[in-house]
């Protein structure tokens, strides 16, 4: 059994008709008309997960909209303690109305707004406590599983406060948008070979896009949780920013695999490899495989575990140096891409945009690399060209 339990927190759809008022735990309606956003959510959330919602209809309705968009999951369990903060007598009022109704209570609240209970209500600190009780219980009951929780802005701030060990004032400062995803992992055996369960934060307030925004590839890719297609090819010239862009597509997810094809044949290449490692930072599992790329992908790909291959042109160079049949190896790679259980992002150099090389070996390499890129691009659902750090989608399959 896995020792990692992953929580996928989703804030409900936008509420309607409550502008300017504190609705808190009131049961207000939400707008689920953005079908493209829900389709993107259905692609981004894991299959086979445990599902829970709060008791409020906006959370339940949001979960149903995800199901209607194509994700199959069992009837969500209702957890009332995942409900939004109860503002008691102040619910349905504006802040000005609260001050006019009870100035003394209003001023007392703002003296310590995360720990003071509104009249007849609860504090944010109270919400953190009850949210933590649910998280602890369900993490034990469903250890090693994915848990999708459709809840509320305050509830998700409370969950993040627990994971990050934040004071209530710090947790209240977190921004949680509607239909965003925040991902927490509970690691039973601790981090860095430690002991005891700990929380790991994998993503906070990551929106998904299902409309034209999904093609705005020049926005910082780490700023949104993208529903990756099965195969993405990222092309670019030397120092174009292609590797940085490709890393951004998957760096919000954990676990994630970095499948490196480079070998440190000299000091300059060793320095390049080290630069890439430093830029990536922690959180990546690195697999080094200079030749057997298809076998490595089959061994390490998994649902919700993306693999980044960097890069195909170095792999081609390795194949040629080893005397391997490049055409057969590329075909084996293309054949395996269609059957992988999880998404793969492949990086490759566009080598054919300069002058024709003046020697036979370089010309053979250019030809083989160009044919490889064509074959992989034909198999990919998304192909992105990166120039001077700017990305442009040149293929986007339906």
Number of helices: 13
Low-confidence stretches: 191-195, 211-226
CATH architecture of the largest domain: 3-Layer(aba) Sandwich
| Total individual domains | 2
Q: What general form does the structure show?
A: elongated
Compact overview of the structure:
The protein has 398 residues and is of the alpha/beta class. Helices cover 37% and strands 19% of the residues. The protein has two domains: 4-212, Phosphoglycerate mutase-like (Rossmann fold, 3-Layer(aba) Sandwich), CATH 3.40.50; 216-396, P-loop containing nucleotide triphosphate hydrolases (Rossmann fold).
Which descriptors would you attach to this protein?
single chain; 398 residues; alpha/beta; Rossmann fold; 7-stranded mixed beta sheet; 13 helices; 19% strand
Q: How would you describe what is shown here?
A:
It is a single chain. By secondary structure, the protein is an alpha/beta fold. The chain has two domains: 4-212, Rossmann fold (3-Layer(aba) Sandwich); 216-396, P-loop containing nucleotide triphosphate hydrolases (Rossmann fold). Helix content is 37%, strand content 19%. It contains 13 helices and 13 strands. The strands form two sheets. A seven-stranded mixed β-sheet has the order 9-8-10-11-7-12-13, sandwiched between helices. A six-stranded mixed β-sheet has the order 3-2-4-1-5-6. Helix 2 (57-68) links the parallel strand 2 (50-53) and strand 3 (77-78). Helix 3 (95-101) packs across helix 4 (103-111) and helix 5 packs across helix 6. The radius of gyration is 25 Å and the shape is elongated.
């Amino acid at each position: 059994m896995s020792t990692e339990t992953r929580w996928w927190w989703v804030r409900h759809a936008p509420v309607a008709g409550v502008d300017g008022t504190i609705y808190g735990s009131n049961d207000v309606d939400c707008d689920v008309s953005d079908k493209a956003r829900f389709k993107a959510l259905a692609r981004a959330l894991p299959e086979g997960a445990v599902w829970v919602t709060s008791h409020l209809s906006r959370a339940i309705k949001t979960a149903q909209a995800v199901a209607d968009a194509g994700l199959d999951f069992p009837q969500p369990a209702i957890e009332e303690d995942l409900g939004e903060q109860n503002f008691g007598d102040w619910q349905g009022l504006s802040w000005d109305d609260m001050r006019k109704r009870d100035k003394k209570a209003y001023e007392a609240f703002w003296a310590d707004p995360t720990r003071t209970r509104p009249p007849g209500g609860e504090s944010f600190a109270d919400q953190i406590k009850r949210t933590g009780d649910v998280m602890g219980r369900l993490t034990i009951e469903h250890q090693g599983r994915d848990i999708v929780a459709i809840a509320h802005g305050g509830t998700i701030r409370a969950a993040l406060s627990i994971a990050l060990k934040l004071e209530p004032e710090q947790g209240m400062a977190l921004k949680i948008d509607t239909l965003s995803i925040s991902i927490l992992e509970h690691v039973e055996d601790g981090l860095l070979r430690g002991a005891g369960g700990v929380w790991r934060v994998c993503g906070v307030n990551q929106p998904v896009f299902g409309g034209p925004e999904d093609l705005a590839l020049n926005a910082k890719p780490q700023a949104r949780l993208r529903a990756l297609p099965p195969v993405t090819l990222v092309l670019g010239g030397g120092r174009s920013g292609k590797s940085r862009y490709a890393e951004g597509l998957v760096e919000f997810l954990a676990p994630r695999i970095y499948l490196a094809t480079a070998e440190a044949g000299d000091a300059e290449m060793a320095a390049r490899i080290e630069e890439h490692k430093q830029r990536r930072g922690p959180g990546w599992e690195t697999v080094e495989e200079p030749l057997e790329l298809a076998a490595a992908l089959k061994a390490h790909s998994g649902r919700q575990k993306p693999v980044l291959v960097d890069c195909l042109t170095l792999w081609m160079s390795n194949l040629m140096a080893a005397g391997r049949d490049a055409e057969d190896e590329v075909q084996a790679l293309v054949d395996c891409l269609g059957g992988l259980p999880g998404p793969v992002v492949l990086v490759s150099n566009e080598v054919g945009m300069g002058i024709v090389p003046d020697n036979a070996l370089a010309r053979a390499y250019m030809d083989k690399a160009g044919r490889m890129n064509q074959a992989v691009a034909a198999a990919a659902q998304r192909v992105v060209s990166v120039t001077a750090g700017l990305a442009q989608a040149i293929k986007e399959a339906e």
